[in-house]
Amino acid sequence: METVRAMVVVLSSLWCYEDSWLRAVARSLLRFLGFIFWGTAAALAFGGVFVILKYKNYRYLFQESFLSLPGWLAVAAALILLPTGVLAISISAKNSRYQQGALMYLLLVLLCLGMSSAVLAQFYSIRMASELKSTMGYLVHQYNGTHAQGPGSKAMDVIQRKLQCCGVQNYTDWLKVTAASWHLPAEKAHVPESCCKEEYSQCRGDLGHLEHLFQEGCLKKLEDPLHFAMLYMFWCCIVLSVLELLAGVSNGILMRHQPFHDLRILDSSTFS
User: Fold this and answer.
1) Nearest CA to 234 among 120, 132, 139, 145?
2) 140 burial type by CB count under 10 A (0-12 exposed, 13-18 middle, 19+ buried)
3) In this predicted model, what pLDDT tens digit does every residue of 40-71 receive, in sequence order?
4) Angle at the Cα of 138 (from 162 to 69), degrees rounded to 5?
């Protein structure tokens, strides 16, 4: 009997020691994650603002009006991450049932925002290439060399000057359309003046001086940064979701060892 009692005491002591160690680890992890959340907020805000600004500058190239939605969701998640980090650090220093509950709610909201942003970023990243290629191809074929102030022509000129590019894939895209749309003989085919490099003021799009022209296509220059931003946001949201789960588990461990003191009114002894 004494042997059994001794084993119970030993197991109880080991349980208490393991329990105390687990709480210490959860507290330290929660404090660490609080600071990580602030850094993640800055990273998410950067990606979200970049996507929003890119869409604002080139919205006439996109048929989807919701392309900036992943960016806005990322910015919203970044703003919520700031008080979440404060709560995580505060709880690691001093347990508060109200703060722990608020942290759980914020983590749930962040998980929804992060996963939504990740799914949308992946979806738009796949659709973006074909949509950009289609729209830019249309602008090139609708370009009118004799009325360069038209909406379509002006848009293409702005893109080529801003990105320092020429055509969709490269400058040869213009060779297929200039002769027909500008009513020029094939040997006179040339590119718009917006393909000219700024340092060559006498350039008029003559193909006899290729060194005066931008030869790289606009599609790659526009698609690459947008694709990178979408991929960047996708992985930021995935990493954030993992961190949120770790924070939720750590917070749950601390909550398990702190009973609802304020709810003792529900005990059966109160009504006896």
Assistant:
1) 120
2) buried
3) 999 999 988 988 888 888 777 776 667 788 88
4) 65
